Amino acid sequence: MFADLEITPRFWELVGSSSGDGESMRSVLMGCTREDLIRFETEFDNAVSDLVYRVIGDHGDAYTEQEVAGWVISRGLAFFAEVWDQPGRFPAEVPDEGANFYGMAGSVLEERFPGQPVTTAEPYRITFWPKARGSAVLP
Question: Each residue of 61-105: pLDDT tens digit?
């Protein structure tokens, strides 16, 4: 159940601030620090992996499912929670490519900090945003 899932409220605040609009999300990310961009990208990737595994387990086309999961996450916390609890609501394809934030933080990171690629170890050296149970965030 979503209520038992450990989530990062700050990540979802950033996603929600865009209202599902790609240009708005890009603008929000352009104002983030390098460390926050790394945090955001890592949290997004983790949420995608968790949702894909929840919906398809070890079956299906993970690449396609990752794109769809990215779109679900881009819709915000309430929709993510709904799909998490009702995997049948997971779309078969991405309805709107322009409203998918999957990989966006990585692109912004490269644009804002050219010549400073993220090393493999770097995400492990930063302190991540605090986590909370889903039940603490959504009633």
Answer: 677 789 999 999 999 999 999 999 999 999 988 888 878 999 999
Measured between alpha carbons, how far is 139 from 30 in angstroms, rounded to an integer?
31
- C-alpha span between 67 and 104 (Å, rounded): 12
Closest CA to 74 of 6, 5, 11: 11
Range of the domain at 40: 2-137
Please say whether the beta carbons of 71 and 99 come within 8 A: yes
Answer whether 0.85 is exceeded by the pTM: yes
The number of domains in the chain is 1
Cα dihedral sign, 121-127-131-137: negative
Q: Work out the number of other CB atoms within 10 angstroms of the CB of residue 108.
A: 21
